[in-house]
Amino acid sequence: MKNFSVMLWISSFEIISYCMGLITRNNMDWYRLLNKSILTPKGYVFSIIWTILYVLLAISGYLLYKTRDKKEIRHLSYIFLIHMLFNWIWTPVFFGLHKLNLALVILVITILLTSYLVIRSFRYYKLVFYLLLPYFCWILFACYLNFVICIIN
Questions:
Q1: What count of Cα atoms within 13 Å lies in the side-chain half-sphere of residue 115?
Q2: What percent of the chain has pLDDT over 70?
Q3: How many distinct structural domains can be found in the chain?
Q4: Which pTM does this prediction carry?
Protein backbone atom coordinates (compact mmCIF):
# COMPACT_ATOMS: atom_id res chain seq x y z
CA MET A 1 0.00 0.00 0.00
CA LYS A 2 2.91 2.38 0.71
CA ASN A 3 4.22 2.01 -2.84
CA PHE A 4 0.75 2.74 -4.21
CA SER A 5 0.46 5.87 -2.05
CA VAL A 6 3.80 7.31 -3.10
CA MET A 7 3.05 6.49 -6.74
CA LEU A 8 -0.27 8.31 -6.39
CA TRP A 9 1.56 11.38 -5.09
CA ILE A 10 4.12 11.20 -7.91
CA SER A 11 1.42 10.69 -10.55
CA SER A 12 -0.61 13.60 -9.21
CA PHE A 13 2.39 15.93 -9.21
CA GLU A 14 3.39 14.86 -12.72
CA ILE A 15 -0.15 15.46 -14.00
CA ILE A 16 -0.05 18.95 -12.51
CA SER A 17 3.38 19.44 -14.06
CA TYR A 18 2.00 18.35 -17.43
CA CYS A 19 -0.83 20.89 -17.14
CA MET A 20 1.69 23.61 -16.31
CA GLY A 21 3.63 22.50 -19.37
CA LEU A 22 0.56 23.00 -21.53
CA ILE A 23 0.21 26.58 -20.30
CA THR A 24 3.90 27.13 -21.02
CA ARG A 25 3.75 25.52 -24.45
CA ASN A 26 0.74 27.63 -25.46
CA ASN A 27 2.70 30.80 -24.68
CA MET A 28 6.09 29.98 -26.20
CA ASP A 29 5.72 32.53 -29.02
CA TRP A 30 5.33 35.27 -26.41
CA TYR A 31 8.20 33.88 -24.30
CA ARG A 32 10.59 33.69 -27.28
CA LEU A 33 10.12 37.43 -27.85
CA LEU A 34 11.26 38.30 -24.32
CA ASN A 35 14.82 39.41 -23.65
CA LYS A 36 16.39 36.81 -21.38
CA SER A 37 19.56 36.16 -19.43
CA ILE A 38 22.44 34.59 -21.31
CA LEU A 39 22.24 31.85 -18.67
CA THR A 40 18.73 30.83 -19.71
CA PRO A 41 18.79 27.10 -20.54
CA LYS A 42 17.24 25.60 -23.67
CA GLY A 43 13.54 24.76 -23.38
CA TYR A 44 14.02 21.00 -23.14
CA VAL A 45 16.23 21.48 -20.07
CA PHE A 46 13.29 22.98 -18.19
CA SER A 47 11.13 19.95 -19.04
CA ILE A 48 13.75 17.48 -17.83
CA ILE A 49 14.55 19.40 -14.64
CA TRP A 50 10.92 19.97 -13.67
CA THR A 51 10.00 16.32 -14.27
CA ILE A 52 12.73 15.27 -11.86
CA LEU A 53 11.95 18.01 -9.35
CA TYR A 54 8.25 17.16 -9.26
CA VAL A 55 9.15 13.54 -8.41
CA LEU A 56 11.33 14.80 -5.55
CA LEU A 57 8.60 17.20 -4.41
CA ALA A 58 5.97 14.46 -4.54
CA ILE A 59 8.12 12.13 -2.46
CA SER A 60 8.80 14.95 0.02
CA GLY A 61 5.10 15.72 0.28
CA TYR A 62 4.26 12.06 0.72
CA LEU A 63 6.86 11.63 3.48
CA LEU A 64 5.58 14.69 5.33
CA TYR A 65 1.97 13.57 4.88
CA LYS A 66 2.54 10.04 6.15
CA THR A 67 4.31 11.30 9.32
CA ARG A 68 1.97 14.22 9.99
CA ASP A 69 0.95 12.75 13.35
CA LYS A 70 4.12 14.34 14.78
CA LYS A 71 3.40 17.97 15.67
CA GLU A 72 6.43 19.54 13.96
CA ILE A 73 6.01 17.40 10.85
CA ARG A 74 2.32 18.33 10.64
CA HIS A 75 3.37 21.99 10.66
CA LEU A 76 5.89 21.30 7.88
CA SER A 77 3.27 19.45 5.84
CA TYR A 78 0.98 22.51 5.97
CA ILE A 79 3.82 24.81 4.92
CA PHE A 80 4.69 22.34 2.15
CA LEU A 81 1.13 22.46 0.78
CA ILE A 82 1.02 26.27 0.90
CA HIS A 83 4.40 26.40 -0.80
CA MET A 84 3.17 24.06 -3.56
CA LEU A 85 0.18 26.32 -4.19
CA PHE A 86 2.58 29.20 -4.81
CA ASN A 87 4.72 26.95 -7.00
CA TRP A 88 1.70 25.96 -9.09
CA ILE A 89 0.37 29.53 -9.34
CA TRP A 90 3.61 30.86 -10.84
CA THR A 91 3.21 29.26 -14.28
CA PRO A 92 -0.28 30.61 -15.07
CA VAL A 93 0.72 34.05 -13.79
CA PHE A 94 3.98 34.19 -15.76
CA PHE A 95 3.07 32.32 -18.94
CA GLY A 96 -0.71 32.64 -18.95
CA LEU A 97 -1.24 36.22 -17.75
CA HIS A 98 2.24 37.52 -18.72
CA LYS A 99 2.50 39.26 -15.34
CA LEU A 100 6.30 39.21 -14.96
CA ASN A 101 6.55 41.28 -11.77
CA LEU A 102 3.73 39.44 -10.01
CA ALA A 103 5.33 36.13 -10.99
CA LEU A 104 8.58 37.34 -9.44
CA VAL A 105 6.78 38.17 -6.18
CA ILE A 106 5.17 34.71 -6.19
CA LEU A 107 8.58 33.14 -6.77
CA VAL A 108 10.13 35.09 -3.90
CA ILE A 109 7.33 33.90 -1.59
CA THR A 110 7.93 30.34 -2.84
CA ILE A 111 11.63 30.71 -2.03
CA LEU A 112 10.89 32.03 1.45
CA LEU A 113 8.53 29.13 2.18
CA THR A 114 11.02 26.65 0.72
CA SER A 115 13.82 28.17 2.82
CA TYR A 116 11.72 27.58 5.89
CA LEU A 117 11.00 24.00 4.81
CA VAL A 118 14.66 23.27 4.11
CA ILE A 119 15.86 24.72 7.41
CA ARG A 120 13.19 23.01 9.51
CA SER A 121 13.41 19.69 7.69
CA PHE A 122 17.15 19.59 8.34
CA ARG A 123 16.27 19.43 12.02
CA TYR A 124 13.17 17.22 11.89
CA TYR A 125 13.31 15.13 8.71
CA LYS A 126 16.73 14.88 7.05
CA LEU A 127 15.50 12.86 4.06
CA VAL A 128 13.02 15.60 3.16
CA PHE A 129 15.85 18.12 3.53
CA TYR A 130 17.97 16.26 0.98
CA LEU A 131 15.04 15.78 -1.39
CA LEU A 132 14.25 19.51 -1.31
CA LEU A 133 17.80 20.78 -1.86
CA PRO A 134 17.90 20.38 -5.68
CA TYR A 135 14.50 22.08 -5.94
CA PHE A 136 15.64 24.91 -3.69
CA CYS A 137 18.73 25.51 -5.83
CA TRP A 138 16.65 25.44 -9.00
CA ILE A 139 14.06 27.95 -7.80
CA LEU A 140 16.84 30.30 -6.72
CA PHE A 141 18.11 30.10 -10.30
CA ALA A 142 14.56 30.50 -11.62
CA CYS A 143 14.19 33.63 -9.50
CA TYR A 144 17.33 35.05 -11.07
CA LEU A 145 15.94 34.28 -14.55
CA ASN A 146 12.57 35.86 -13.71
CA PHE A 147 14.30 38.90 -12.22
CA VAL A 148 16.43 39.43 -15.33
CA ILE A 149 13.36 39.16 -17.54
CA CYS A 150 11.60 41.79 -15.38
CA ILE A 151 14.58 44.15 -15.57
CA ILE A 152 15.34 43.96 -19.31
CA ASN A 153 11.79 43.80 -20.71
A1: 7
A2: 99
A3: 1
A4: 0.93
